[in-house]
Amino acid sequence: MELPITRPTYVSYGDEVEFDKFLEKLARKKHNGFIRITHASSEGHIIIKDGTPVAASYDRYMKSEAMEKILEIVNKMETLIELFELKESQIDYIIDINKVYKLEPSFSRKLKPPKIEEHPKITPIKKPTPKPKEPPTEEKPTPKPKEPPTEEKPTPKPKEAPGLAETTKKPLNREEVMKKYGLKDIDEEEVEKVLENYKGGAMTTIDIERVELTLMNKIKKAIIGIPNIKSVEVMVFLENMPELEGDMKVLIERENTGLLSRLMGGVMKEEELKEHIIDIIEMEIKKTFRGYPEIIEKFNVNIEIH
Amino acid sequence: MTRVITIASGKGGVGKTIVAANLGVALASYGERVIVLDADIAMANLELVLGMEGKSVTLHDVLAGKADIEEAIYEGPEGVKVVPAGISLEGLRNVKLERLEEVLSQLLEDTDILLIDAPAGLEKDAITALAAAEELLLVTTPEIPSISDVLKTKIIADKLDVKIIGVIVNREQHDKTFLTVDEIETILEVPVISVIPEDPEISRSAAFGEPIIIKNPKSPASNAIMKLAADLLGKEFHPIEPDKRGIISKLIAGLTGRR
């Protein structure tokens, strides 16, 4: 509930006050304000207009359900009751902004003391009809004050256990709430970007074997495209522990080239070929480990040309 | 079977580590064999919250390949086991996150629950902690920036197929400027399973390196955390009542040795 919490005009523990009598007193005084009820980590509020409870919330509960929950715990020793006063001019506004918690008129009537001057001894909740008092009798011997959602589910699985959302009856419109607070979902592209970054350097053992094979094939395919290369063998060994690094061995067999070709400059010299192959290898490594370019420094490449 | 639960928030400073530390101790107090691992290797402070700073071997050393995980496990309150991350920016350079998965698998033996305190944000370290989880607890405060960040974390977790247990709303205050529980549930599309009220005792207990559930078990925050632990285990929760005795009677009880 949205309430102006100021200094309470009255504070008491549940066992120190008879709540029905307390309500009766408020009814007599035609009190305008609200009561805050705190029990363990749960909190509830009852808005009182002209001495009559008109709206209630407790934990996840609303309206009459909240009122029933409050009545279950309100007389307990560990429950704290605080009374707050509101001006007559404020009360309607407060009720309006908390209208989702408004008690059904029938429930309000039940709680309202029926003509105090005629039946001075009748308390608002207790005597005339036992209905509103039913929840406390359900309480029985268990001292547990607030565990209704978990009680229903014997399974210890957390997702099923608390299920507090299920108890919230009033569904809000997500779009409206998001708009109200200027929030938006991150788009698919951004999600992919985040996950891409994550995948960059973290690899499992299974990944390593796959990457080794992929890298091997890519480099082999690229080298075989160079003119006058008869055959290529590429071996890649990746090590992920303690840090990601690799060893690569490339064995190349060249075709026999004639004197004329060599004189015409159509054949790369051994050093030139090695440099060219290293360029190819670096490019393939970079493509494979996108987002983790430092890996280049961690590769030991050995090229043998025959 | 070991449950691997990551506690993540998105935004830093929402009390995630304090929740992780206290929840770990709370779960251990119910008789579970619990390990809390601080995966926040850049801004480690689980050890500070639990009063365990200055340990010689930490997760840093394990991830750098300098130590075995067994050497980095320490016993904390209620028998909870703790793997501190180690507070050393110097050591951070050598840390290999790739090792985290292997480290986690070693921790699963003889453990009922492995709680991972994930780093804030969506950097690689945070995502690694998310991806390692089977289940996820999201921690947020009821403020817009926290909700905005936790929403991103939730979306990433969904993408990684991590089962989200629910949201813990920490430092809840009755202030109109904050989001309500209903609004938080609507935005995140995940149930709020615990609301921990704002409690200055929490900061105080963290400063003393003592979990609030031990330092002040009667506080509303302690009760909320104990209830959350009970819910996670499907156990019954009985709140610890606040002490209502007056100062005089407490004094008399103290003097006469009665508590």
UniProtKB/TrEMBL annotation, chain B:
**Alphabetized UniProt keyword annotations:** ATP-binding, Nucleotide-binding
High-level lineage: Archaea, Methanobacteriati, Methanobacteriota, Methanomada group, Methanobacteria
Entries under NCBIfam families matching the protein:
minD_arch
List the protein's name.
Answer: Septum site-determining protein MinD
Q: One of this protein's Pfam families, by short name?
A: ParA
> Per its UniProt record, what InterPro entries does this chain match?
MinD_archaea, MinD_FleN, P-loop_NTPase, ParA/MinD_ATPase, YlxH/NBP35
| Highest taxon, organism lineage | Archaea
UniProt organism field? Methanothermobacter tenebrarum
